[in-house]
Amino acid sequence: MSERGYRPPLSYKDPSFLDRSEARSVRILSEYLQPLSVLRKQLVHDTIVFFGSARIREDGPMGRYYREARELARLVTMWSDGLPDTTRRFVVTTGGGPGIMEAANRGAMDASGKSIGFNIALPFEQDPNPYISRELSFEFHYFFMRKFWFAYLAKTLVVFPGGFGTLDELSELLTLLQTKKLDKKMLIILYGSEFWKKVINFEALAEMGMIGEEDLQLFEWADEPGQAMEIIQSRMTEWYLEPETPLPRGEQKTPAISNTRN
């Protein structure tokens, strides 16, 4: 018999249930629906995602990349905020942590613009940086849901030098483009050609038949913020702002819509 007067909590408000393995699907769904709701409310239409190491510091040996990520994010934000649109286009987005992520969020703030942080709970490295727009700061438990949100609205990826996490994110997005699992055009810029050509020999992969020669066209190189900004502005204008052919239905001006195949 239950204790007289005792009322059990509603299941969706019961932490002891929500933290159990049986509720994993509820937690996963929440990490899809909560960002979707917020991004729609904030009228975010699409994003420009900055990837790169959490370990790069402004005053460290690779500090130029921090400073250049900050400057590029500032340029992107000034350009996007000047577009004649009622929705937020090409919003600077990062993984929410320190290093290159912090630099990009900081650059957007330098331009008095908003930026997104898709942070993830980790035992080290990954407290949210203070430059993310408060209303666009998200915390994830599941890596794959965080990756989904990186890809979902992104029109451009700018990939700065990084380690395992950056390589993982880059490889996954290149694979989605290569296999045409993304039903949209996406620009990928590898920033820091000296670093990337030393770390990954893309030409050797093609020569050995591991990728096609045409796959080398899936990305472009940049070594200066102005150069990267010129590429971004040119491609985004050609593909999304002033396309020669009508955009697919999935690219119309409904905020936070799906750009991936089922």
Average residue-wise pLDDT: 91
What is the straight-line distance between the termini?
A: 48 Å
Strand-residue proportion = 5-15%
Overall morphology: globular
Number of helices: 9
| Count of extended strands | 7
Give me the side-by-side strand order of the main sheet: 4-3-2-1-5-6-7
CATH level-two architecture: 3-Layer(aba) Sandwich
CATH class: Alpha Beta
**What would the CATH topology be?**
Rossmann fold
Helix content class? 40-55%
Indicate the structural class: alpha/beta
Q: What's the helix-strand series?
A: HHEHEHEEHEHEHHEH
| Biggest sheet record | 7 strands, parallel
Number of domains: 1
**Stretches where pLDDT falls below 50 for ≥5 residues?**
253-262
As a whole number of angstroms, the C-alpha radius of gyration is 20 Å
Tell me what the structure shows:
The chain has a 7-stranded parallel beta sheet with strand order 4-3-2-1-5-6-7, sandwiched between helices. It has a single domain (13-251), classed as Rossmann fold, CATH 3.40.50.450. The protein is 41% helix and 12% strand. It contains 9 helices and 7 strands. The relative contact order is 0.14. With 262 residues, the protein is an alpha/beta fold. It is globular and about 75 Å long. The N and C termini lie far apart (48 Å). The protein has helices at 15-18, 24-41, 63-81, 100-110, 143-153, 164-178, 193-199, 202-207, 225-241; strands at residues 47-51, 91-94, 116-120, 137-140, 154-159, 187-191, 220-222. α3 (63-81) packs parallel to α4 and α3 (63-81) runs parallel beside α9.
